[in-house]
Write a structure and sequence with these properties.
By secondary structure, this protein is α/β, with parallel strands linked by helices. It has 2 domains: 21-213, Glycerol-3-phosphate (1)-acyltransferase; 265-341, no CATH class. The protein has helices at 2-21, 50-58, 75-83, 98-114, 139-150, 196-208, 219-229, 236-245, 265-270, 272-281, 289-317, 322-341; strands at residues 24-28, 39-43, 64-68, 86-89, 118-121, 157-165, 174-179, 183-184. Strands 1, 2, 3, 4, 5, 6, 7 and 8 form an 8-stranded mixed sheet that branches. 29% of the residues are buried.
Amino acid sequence: MIQDWFNAGVRAFVRTALWVYYKDIQVHGRENLKKDKPLMVLANHQNGLIDPLVIGTYSGLYPYYLARADVFNHALIHRMLRYLRMMPIYRLRDGRDFAQKNEGIYQRCAQIIQKNNSLLLFPEGGHGRNRKVRPLKNGFIHILSKTLAQNPEIDVWIQPMGVNYTNLTEFPDRVRLYIAPAIRVKDFWQDGEDQTLLKQAVFDSICRCTVHIEDLSQHDRLVSYVMASGLDITKAPEVNDYLQSHPLDVPVSEETPQGTQLIPWMLRLMWWPIWWLWPKIFPPKSIEPEMRSTLRLTWTILGALFSYLLLGVLGALAGGSYTATFVALGLHALMTLWWIKKKTD
């Protein structure tokens, strides 16, 4: 009971933080969710820890997660992440015994699915900022194999999803999540086979709800081509149709951010400690582009909470009225929120 309340509180806080941080978050296809079935959620992976946070708090599901093992290295963090329904998945870089360690995780995942829970993982096996769905790894097939071996009668479904960003390294950004129709595993499962048909069905479904540019040598030019047309780059089905029906036959400039805004001097002044310290603590060259939003979100939210607490305490110690301090901080927050949410296109 306590764990459920704690998780609910954390989810509410994360959902609010994402709403504040992003200009707009839209979800399409909630009617496709198979909430009443044992469910495996499979999605593309472009944006570090932001992808699972968006899916976990905006999709309407309450999933268990698989995350890269290196974030579990500290004992306290390990315990906290486990408490939040997260489990480590090991890779070759985590040691030669990574496959043996994963066997235990796969068994745990199979048990979770059998209890009619949802399990979220990213079958590409890593994140990448390019707008392309990479070939799917076999991890989710191993989990399904163990699930069906333990309970051959279980009716497992796969829920493909696609997360799309306007420009994932910029702030403020837009997010659009597509939830595709669920896939019944038994309709594709072949005993003793490598499950090529199931993998292809999942791959095709994720591609339909994600902007998918197969030729990476033309990636930036095609993204610029779409942006120049005025089409919202986060509207994956429309963008994919546009690229199919409008071949690239005109020169275009390099990719430019769509929907991003210059930070006004007033806002920089209002948040100057956070703004000034950000590049000092997290130099741009030291951060993977796919992790920039994750770190910026964490830094911004924690910095804002600390700043408001500190200003409130200083205002009280200086003898100012609580009402005046509260109103001043409220106006400060509303002005910041207005700038993040205002329309620019």
